[in-house]
Specification:
The structure holds two protein chains of two kinds. By secondary structure, chain A is mainly α. Chain A is built from three helices and no strands. Chain A has a single domain, classed as Orthogonal Bundle (Helix Hairpins), CATH 1.10.287. The longest helix of chain A has about 30 residues. Chain A is elongated, with a radius of gyration of 19 Å. Chain B has a domain of about 200 residues. Chain B is about 75% helix and about 0% strand. Chain B contains 19 helices and two strands. Chain B has a two-stranded antiparallel sheet. The longest helix of chain B is centred in the C-terminal third of the chain and has 35 residues. Chain B is globular and about 75 Å long. The chains are: A mainly alpha, B mainly alpha. The interface between A and B is large, with 34 and 39 residues.
Chain lengths: ~120, ~525
Amino acid sequence: MMHIGNLPFIVAMLLVILGLYALLFKRNLIKMVIGVSLVETGVNLFLVTLGYRAEGIAPIYTHAPTAVSQVLPTPQALTLTSIVIGLATTALLLSFAVLVYRHYGTLDVTKIKELRG
Amino acid sequence: MNALTTHAPILIIATPLLGAFAAPLIGKLGWTVRTAFAGAIAALTGCFAGLLAATLYTGGGAPIVYVLGGRLPLPSGLAAPIRIMLEVDGLSAFMALITALVAVVAVLYSVSYWKERSGGALYDSLLFLLIAGVFGLVLTGDMFNFFVFLEITSVAACGLIGFRTWRKRSSEAAFKVMALYTLSGLFVLLAVGLLYGQYGGLNIAYLATNLGGTMVDRVALALLIAGLAMKAGAVPMHMWAPEAYGEAPAPVSMVLVANSQASLYALFRVLFTLYGQSLSAAAVGWILIVLALLTIFVGVTMALVQKDLKRLIAFGAVSQIGYMLLAVGVGFAVLATRPDFGLTAITGGIFHMINDVACIGLLFLAAGAAIRASGSRDLHSMGGLAHSLKGTTVLFAVGAFALAGVPPFNGFASKLLIYESTFQLSPVLAVIAVLASIVLLAVFVRAFQAVFLGPRLIARPEPVPWPMVASMVVLAAVVIGFGLFPGFFIDKIVTPAANALWSGQGDYIRAVMGG
């Protein structure tokens, strides 16, 4: 099996940085939501990677065979929870984006100027 | 110990959660049933919080641990704390009392705040969800559950900020706030992941025994400080706060202040209990102090230039977060040498939390009543409301003086402690804090004069219904009561909370880990 080392961690952090970039520098609300979603995916990937053990088996045994290592179950539970939360936040963000579009007729943040100062 | 006392920690969270999910169903039965149900849930939650606090204080302040779904150690004999756990010490109980006060007042105020009688069940639902989330934040003893509750408050808070979908600004504010809240939550989750990866646990007490001050620990701390300070509304990540407080319905603005304070609580918990002395506290303390001074300065100066009543109060609220951060930052900076004024600073900061929520809450509620009555929130087009809204006028004045730290109101009592103790670390800090308070007084005198004094600009403002007045009177009673008898309240509820931070790390860990 090919050894991948820290590559998953690097990819996860790249996703986080890409997402932050989109959130800070994109002007379209939908692209900002995509940015938030990317950060979320990066963090989720990071969590799953934390629990990975090379050649490990799925953590589904009460009395696991001791000869082989198991993948850690907790990060998977965390990730599942985080995915569900992410779904809710993304849906909420998108519905606010829809409302903003209905009110202002645009998704460009530079043109939405009610709240300043 | 009877069952109710034993299970009080989880009942505090479960009751508003039940309220949140039952409210839309109960709402089908009509306005009267819905209101009675909301009142009952709020009252019950308040009782549980009081019961929990009373149990803690009579038990000598030892932390109460509540393990969900079983016992510790596990039947297999494994002692590592891997179950879901709530842990209540003096500070958690204090925050639970603040949240309970806010919950009861917000529900009472909301009874007659809405002019429409439909759609209110969904509002109740979100409000209870937010309250359940805030209770969860302050009671949990587990980093991951902490993240979950943080996200519950984010979703519910943004739902409430954007609740008035017919208003342009509400949707815009809700979007911005949601994006920042989600980001702060993800910072926290990343930090939780970093800690889990090193120590294989999520329990705060377990992590605290293992933290060794490695580089990764410091990165995690930086992420936690960034995320939690963002959610608390500290400069430079305060942009969401005026929009959230300003656009949310009046009672929700008050609950949002409690929500920000819960994030601040979490920051204190992370610093004092989780990290404690495993890092060079002085450097981190000074970072907090600088953030706090910036927050005070930006909050006050931005409040000066506002024309919108609610945004003006919102910037006032931002500046007050700075005072709490300043006091506790000073306490943390001197954690290693432990002079007496460190504990005084923390006591002042903690005491200021309940004082702030009472007087800022009172201001938001009074402003909400004035805006509801006059149909405007622009300082220039309101005016002369004192002619017809006498009660609200007096209540607003009480809140404004308390916020600016004028004796004999409660803001003075806690700010005096903050001035005294920060002066001993560096006189510059105290001078800036005092000056900012004076400017804040000027800001609120101007707002008061513009809204309530002068000739009548609104011909016939709507009268303020009695539940709204009653809820404001409750807060005003807290403001005046805490101002007149600060010694009593500091002794009873603030000192256990301050001690939990200053010297309670060992007790907090022992309550879970034994030994």
